[in-house]
Amino acid sequence: MLTPPQAPARSRAQITATGLSIALGGNRIFNEVDVTVTPGSRIAIVGENGRGKTTLLHSLAGTVQPDAGTVTRIGTIGIAEQEMASEEGRTVGDAVSASIAASLTALAALDEASLALADATPTAADTYAAALERAEALDAWDAERRVDLALQALKAESERSRTLASLSVGQRYRVRLACLLGGDTDFLLLDEPTNHLDRAGLGFMTERLRTWRGGVVVVSHDRALLDDVAETFIDLDPTYDDRVRIYGGGYEGYRAGRLAERERWEQEYERQRAERSRLQDALSSAQNRLVSGWRPEKGSNKHGRATRAPGLVQSVHRRASALEEHAVTVPAPPLELRFPDLPGRAGATLLTAEHVAVDARLEHSVTLRLTGGSKLVVTGRNGAGKSTLLSVLAGELAPTGGHVHRSASCRLSFLRQESDLPSDRRVNDWYESTIDALGLHHGGTQRATLGLSALGLLTARETGKRIGELSIGQQRRLDLALAIAARPSVLLLDEPTNHLSIALVEELTEALRSTRAAVVVSSHDRQWLRDTADWPRLELPK
User: Fold this and answer.
1) Which pTM does this prediction carry?
2) CA angle 421, 427, 430 (to 5 degrees)
3) pLDDT digits (tens, 9 = 90+) for 218-259
4) Which residue, among 103, 105, 76, has the nearest Cα to 212 in the 3D structure?
């Protein structure tokens, strides 16, 4: 006999994690996480790549067992992973049926109870009343229509006979997400749900998450989604005491909390360093007194020198012990972008493009003028030619119509959407050789560029690695470092927020806002577009 699908617990639903800790490959990725998810919870799990966001999400769902701690669950859970599995022969219809199984079961039970009621079966009235109550609680009659609406809104495959294996990763994800958003579980656990959605799909999903009557936990780098939906943030990025931080107050509360946390971290780190430096000076002074005590001036009393020596030795030992006890236990604070002072004279023309077009890639001609300090955001649908336009402005692609003129003072850098870094080269070596190849020197000796460590984008340990050993986010940081280190007067950025942490994106946004260089940005990042709403826009038609 098949076990009937679990019914939603509604107001009784709860996920409670206590002391949750997990290590992978011998490295602890998070430690002693305490969190409670209730109906109405809107929780975001954030952090850099590799910090364990997906692992924590699956721990809450019960598909990953923690090394320590406990998780209790009451209610139904729907989870959308970044990649949906496609078992052999499983169809879209199977996925839809599974997502509304409780409603389908409730309707079948109601039909059966109706027949029993017609036959005047004993207790039929009570059975029918219970079946009707459950079907009404689930709004079971509308279940399939809700899923169909979600499939349509997300532009997901709706043909029930289509096998999931025949769909792309993005198409399978949209089917799974639509089934969840059209379903009725107590909890939605979503891993990077914006990855495969267009603007309309994003709007639909955002509204569903806002009005979901159960709890929502989402792993995402999409700052606009976090701003629109999340009320509580679980931040898995490193802290000075190795404890996970949880912030309330929505996205603004999270940002303020992170800033305050960083200030506390820096203050404690500097306090410990200052104390250790003071103790080191005291030890050095005691050691110097000990040495000088054995070299008295001529005519000094030898007996007095001998009786003084033990006290000097004890002083050295005391200070050495104090120094040992006051080791700096707080790790160095995380890196912070140190954006260089880029050149630029307000109003001075640096680059002009007149009626530029590229056959089959940038069909509508573009005319623009960049001056010192000017800002421009290039928008448009996929395929409108945004990346093509930036390649033309950078001189990497010749236009088939129109022309581009760069002034003598125009020094240009281009952050491409896709990286082409050599995986076998060491980070520092590649950075130095690339900068040297630019030939940007003053008087042949003084460099007009910055050293990699001065930019606050990669740690010393990371700069010693081969590029292929870096994460995608770290490689993106290296690309950004190369783009800004040469102190360009014109900076072209194609999807600059891709693969960057939330904190770094916000630091970069502020830096670009205040730089004297001309900046042109192509981006789909909704929060970036909100944050730069006061910048001029160039909308490319398609």
Assistant:
1) 0.83
2) 65
3) 999 899 999 999 999 999 998 888 899 999 999 999 999 999
4) 76
